[in-house]
From TrEMBL:
<protein>
    <recommendedName>
        <fullName>Hydrolase</fullName>
    </recommendedName>
</protein>
<dbReference type="InterPro" id="IPR036412">
    <property type="entry name" value="HAD-like_sf"/>
</dbReference>
<dbReference type="GO" id="GO:0016791">
    <property type="term" value="F:phosphatase activity"/>
</dbReference>
<dbReference type="GO" id="GO:0005829">
    <property type="term" value="C:cytosol"/>
</dbReference>
<dbReference type="InterPro" id="IPR023214">
    <property type="entry name" value="HAD_sf"/>
</dbReference>
<dbReference type="Pfam" id="PF08282">
    <property type="entry name" value="Hydrolase_3"/>
</dbReference>
<dbReference type="GO" id="GO:0000287">
    <property type="term" value="F:magnesium ion binding"/>
</dbReference>
Length: 256
């Protein structure tokens, strides 16, 4: 079985330009040939649906929240979900809830995501549809990721990462300007591996191709048979992949 796993933002989705029709056509042809196409994204269920609105892009399965959950291709049936403790979100609010230059969110295993603090004075397309929430809302939801958005300040971003690592009891992933706090052991690689297990596809029976542009894609690149990054990827990501390509459609057809 041939399986391809795609990151979403920066790989298939390129705001403000949206999707390349050539990439969508290549994925359609891949699926029509009987192979599986999986999204492997840091986005939650609602955030991915928001990002895909108005497009014809389709997948067979979704690995969401950096491997924290997975659904069917229609994003209707939850296949598995791993919760990050609400105490992690409370700790983030205690440490950074009033800090200028960042925003704190909570994405869930359900149908709603929340904004808990936004001290930036701006919104991002990724989170524009999130609902305002407070500490009082935390017990009412099952959170998959606590994303902390730190745009344009590498020193503050490094401080947040160091704080999260010291806090312990969680997984930390960086996706461009976002720092994602997740349940222990979660990553895109772990999520893909678990999904293959749920589908009863032994890893040795699968030829796995991965496409992803950022640091949070490294765990899935590490388990791939063939991995791909892009010219805009950080140097560390480019160095860790087998190929640096211009677009998905440049190479996907050659693997069919």
């Amino acid at each position: 079985m041939k399986v391809v796993a795609f990151d979403f933002d920066g790989t298939l989705h390129h705001p403000p330009n949206g999707f390349r029709e050539e990439d969508i056509a290549a994925i359609d042809a891949w699926r029509a040939a009987g192979h599986l196409a999986i999204s492997a994204t840091g986005r939650s269920r609602t955030a991915l649906a928001h990002g895909m609105r108005g497009s014809s892009l389709a997948f067979d399965y979704q690995v969401l929240s950096n491997g924290g959950s997975a659904t069917d291709g229609a994003n209707e049936q939850l296949i598995f979900g791993h919760e990050v403790s609400g105490d992690v979100l409370r700790a983030a609010l205690d440490a950074f809830g009033s800090r200028e230059g960042l925003a704190i969110f909570g994405t869930t295993l359900g149908r709603v995501d929340g904004v808990f603090a936004n001290n930036i004075g701006a919104t991002h397309d990724f989170t524009a549809h999130f609902q305002p929430m407070t500490r009082a809302d935390i017990p009412d939801h099952r959170f998959a990721v606590v994303p902390i958005w730190v745009p344009g300040d590498t020193q503050l971003r490094a401080e947040v990462v160091a704080w999260a690592v010291e806090l312990g009891g969680l997984e930390v992933a960086q996706n461009q300007d976002y720092i994602d706090l997740m349940a222990p052991g979660r990553s895109k690689g772990a999520g893909i591996t678990q999904l293959l297990g749920e589908l009863r596809l032994p890893r040795e029976s699968v030829q796995l191709y991965t496409f992803g542009d950022s640091w949070n894609d490294l765990p899935m690149h590490a388990i791939a048979d063939v991995s791909h990054s892009f010219p805009h990827s950080p140097e560390e990501v480019r160095a860790a992949t087998d190929h640096v390509i211009g677009a998905v459609s440049d190479v996907l057809g050659g693997y069919m």
